[in-house]
Amino acid sequence: MDLVKMLSEQYMKPELPEMNVGDTVRVMVRVKEGSRERVQAFEGTIIAKKHGGINQTITVRRVSYNVGVEKVFPVHSPTIVKVETVRRGKVRRAKLYYIRKRVGKRAKVKERV
């Protein structure tokens, strides 16, 4: 086995939930403020998944105080405590960048039953 592949498998998280583009997820992030450490939740819709293996990232978008906020999370990072799937989305695209231009009900993703 390749040495790089062996090392990267060692640091990958084994217990990740199934998450796809269009799903609404709650990402628990470990935040360090001075000497204190706490867990902060970021809930939004996955609009993109990129890369694979240890480098896998998800882009999560939410609207906060009428401003669209997007964060890119490395899935296997030690700062990510856990990822919960809140609801499943029914989409027909791999990247949902068109949601950036939409507001209100038009920006919603249908739920998969």
Folded structure, characterized:
The protein is built from 1 helix and 5 strands, in the order αβββββ. It has 113 residues and is mainly β. The protein has one domain (3-107): SH3 type barrels, CATH 2.30.30.790. A 5-stranded antiparallel beta sheet has the order 4-3-2-1-5, with no helix packed on it. Strand 1 (24-33) and strand 2 form a beta hairpin. The model has no long low-confidence stretch (mean pLDDT 94).
CATH architecture: Roll
Classify the secondary structure makeup into a structural class. mainly beta
What would you report as the Rg, rounded to the nearest angstrom? 15 Å
Number of strands: 5
| Spatial separation of the terminal alpha carbons | 41 Å
* Largest β-sheet summary: 5 strands, antiparallel
Q: Please state the overall shape, judged from the principal axes of the Cα atoms.
A: globular
Characterize this entry briefly.
This protein has 113 residues and is mainly beta.
Summary keywords:
113 residues; SH3 type barrels; 1 helix; mainly beta
Topology summary:
Blueprint: H1 3-11, E1 24-33, E2 36-50, E3 57-64, E4 67-74, E5 80-87
Antiparallel strand pairs: 1-2, 1-5, 2-3, 3-4
